[in-house]
Automatic annotation (TrEMBL), chain B:
<feature type="transmembrane region" description="Helical">
    <location>
        <begin position="264"/>
        <end position="284"/>
    </location>
</feature>
<dbReference type="Pfam" id="PF02653">
    <property type="entry name" value="BPD_transp_2"/>
</dbReference>
<feature type="transmembrane region" description="Helical">
    <location>
        <begin position="179"/>
        <end position="206"/>
    </location>
</feature>
<keyword id="KW-1003">Cell membrane</keyword>
<feature type="transmembrane region" description="Helical">
    <location>
        <begin position="51"/>
        <end position="74"/>
    </location>
</feature>
<dbReference type="GO" id="GO:0006865">
    <property type="term" value="P:amino acid transport"/>
</dbReference>
<keyword id="KW-1133">Transmembrane helix</keyword>
<keyword id="KW-0812">Transmembrane</keyword>
<feature type="transmembrane region" description="Helical">
    <location>
        <begin position="7"/>
        <end position="31"/>
    </location>
</feature>
<feature type="transmembrane region" description="Helical">
    <location>
        <begin position="132"/>
        <end position="158"/>
    </location>
</feature>
<dbReference type="GO" id="GO:0005886">
    <property type="term" value="C:plasma membrane"/>
</dbReference>
<feature type="transmembrane region" description="Helical">
    <location>
        <begin position="94"/>
        <end position="112"/>
    </location>
</feature>
<dbReference type="InterPro" id="IPR052157">
    <property type="entry name" value="BCAA_transport_permease"/>
</dbReference>
<dbReference type="InterPro" id="IPR001851">
    <property type="entry name" value="ABC_transp_permease"/>
</dbReference>
<dbReference type="GO" id="GO:0022857">
    <property type="term" value="F:transmembrane transporter activity"/>
</dbReference>
<keyword id="KW-0472">Membrane</keyword>
<keyword id="KW-0029">Amino-acid transport</keyword>
Length: 235, 286
């Protein structure tokens, strides 16, 4: 199957620290690929390097066969990659409606349809359309961040730890919504919550100390307690 | 009571002039994290450009529009060639923008004259209205109206247009704006040009107000504008408006009632506000 995103030997430094020490991974269209790993393994930096927010100093990133590692963040986003950061990065003084307005690169029928669809998935956003995003609850902020990335016709969403700091019921709801998106877009999901992510993921990559140490289908990870214990500390 | 009303009008008019200078400064700092000490130079160029254009065309409207165009053109050049190489480095920004301030100031002497220039109030706006025993100077009221109109226009653009929302979002989180596919550098340049244009408008309006302009006037007003931006909160337009009015009024009233405190008044105001709210009146950043 054609690869949507191909990362080869990506190395990233933050100041003098060698954070990513050769990340190689593929993202296949129509799947949910989950990137697992402990805190500090380099998962967030991997997403930020793909987006050009923390440019890689070595290695290559190919999007639909085209090299993108030297492009600016806005150019990468325009290629069709949406980003949901770990901290949600709300425009705290803008309302939900205003945030959706600036997120839309086009205001055509297709984009409006996508907005309708995501508002049906996250009805809270419709309810609080005129509320400043800084005043939303943690779960609603996460919905806002996902909706903001989804509303454009992106072929890939990079979602960074959406379950962080949320109640289990909210995490379950978010995972369900990400699974619903799978029919419309490909997802590269960073997660530490194995039990939730394994319910929706098709394939996984395991990161440790800035490298990919294991990869395979989610079924293989479900069956491999040793890897889970070693890298995630769970049985 | 008449004296109080006159002081009020004076204070508000001065406040509006400082606001025009501060509005660009606060947006430039809020969005681009750039400390632009050259902003006062644009104010002075607006004043000289306005006086010159008024002399050439005889039209005050053309003079104001021309001053804005001069300011925007200088702003574009400044952002493109001076500020862009020093994004992210405050020390370098202070040094190069102070250098720009000096160059702009000296260039005024070369282009026009090293001596102060006289600036006339246009006939339509000269004189005053007498309401009872209160004398209202027309030009000062005109300055207040222009200041309020600019404030409303900036608010309207920032709150109702997509470009305005992007600017506000950029002040809050530049990185995320880029991740949405928006070229923030273009927005930076645009904001810088608009800020420079408004500073130049402030200068062009100040010229007939003070009656005389001189090449160092930019620095004098830039200090006031920096005080206003700090009091109002970095990046906040409402904060700048309120702070500019406070600075204008305190300057006006202190100069009349406590002249020995008039120079220290603005600094005291800033100290009091910062002690109570370190991020400024409307500031979200620490």
């Amino acid at each position: 199957m054609m690869t949507l995103l191909q990362v080869k030997d990506m190395q990233t430094f933050i100041e003098q620290y060698h954070i990513l020490q050769g990340v190689t991974m593929d993202v296949t269209p129509g799947e949910i690929t989950v990137l697992f790993g402990r805190n500090g393994a380099g998962k967030t930096t991997t997403l930020r390097s793909i987006m050009g927010l923390q440019p890689a100093s070595k290695g290559s990133i190919h999007w639909k066969g085209e090299s993108i590692e030297r492009l600016a963040t806005y150019q990468i986003a325009r290629k069709g990659i949406g980003y949901v950061p770990e901290d949600q990065s709300m425009f705290y003084d803008l309302t939900v409606g205003e945030t959706m307005r600036i997120a839309m690169r086009r205001q055509d029928d297709r984009t409006m349809e996508r907005q309708e669809w995501i508002l049906n998935v996250f009805p809270d956003l419709r309810t609080f359309w005129n509320r400043k995003t800084g005043l939303l609850s943690g779960g609603q902020k996460q919905m806002m961040a996902i909706a903001r990335a989804y509303v454009n016709d992106n072929d890939l969403l990079l979602i960074d730890e959406p379950s962080k700091g949320l109640a289990p019921i909210m995490v379950e709801k978010l995972m369900q919504s990400i699974e619903m998106m799978k029919a419309k877009t490909t997802v590269l999901l960073v997660e530490q919550n194995f039990f939730m992510a394994q319910t929706i993921g098709d394939r996984y990559y395991m990161m440790d100390e800035g490298k990919i140490v294991h990869q395979g289908s989610m079924q293989e990870l479900r069956n491999n307690g040793e890897i889970r214990r070693k890298y995630l500390g769970i049985a | 009571m008449d004296g109080v009303i006159n002081l009020l009008v004076n204070g508000l008019a001065t406040g509006m002039l400082v606001f025009l200078l501060a509005v660009g400064l606060t947006l430039i700092f809020g969005l681009m994290s750039v400390l632009n000490f050259g902003h006062g130079g644009l104010f002075a160029w607006g004043a000289y450009g306005g006086v010159w254009l008024y002399g050439v065309t005889g039209s005050f409207v053309a003079a104001l529009i021309g001053a804005v165009v001069i300011g925007m053109a200088l702003g574009w050049m400044m952002e493109r060639w001076v500020i862009r190489p020093v994004y992210g480095n405050h020390v370098q920004q202070i040094l190069v923008t102070l250098g720009v301030m000096l160059v702009l100031s000296e260039m005024l002497k070369v282009v026009w004259s090293p001596n102060p220039l006289k600036a006339d109030v246009p006939p339509l706006l000269s004189g005053s209205w007498e309401i009872g025993s209160v004398i209202l100077i027309k030009y000062r009221l005109f300055v207040i109206v222009i200041g309020l109109l600019v404030f409303l226009a900036v608010q309207l653009v920032l709150k109702k247009t997509k470009i305005g929302l992007i600017v506000r979002a950029g002040v809050m989180n530049k990185e995320m704006v880029q991740a949405l596919g928006i070229h923030i550098r273009t927005i930076f340049t645009l904001v810088f040009m608009v800020g420079a244009g408004l500073a130049a408008l402030g200068g062009a309006l100040l010229a007939p107000y003070s009656g005389v302009i001189f090449s160092e006037m930019g620095m004098q007003f830039a200090i006031l504008a920096f005080i206003v931006v700090v009091i109002g909160g970095m990046g906040s337009i409402q904060g700048s408006m309120l702070a500019a009015i406070l600075v204008g009024l305190s300057g006006s009233f202190l100069a009349y009632y406590l002249p020995e405190l008039s120079l220290a008044g603005n600094m005291l105001l800033m100290v009091i506000v910062l002690l109570i709210k370190p991020s400024g009146l409307f500031g979200a950043k620490g």
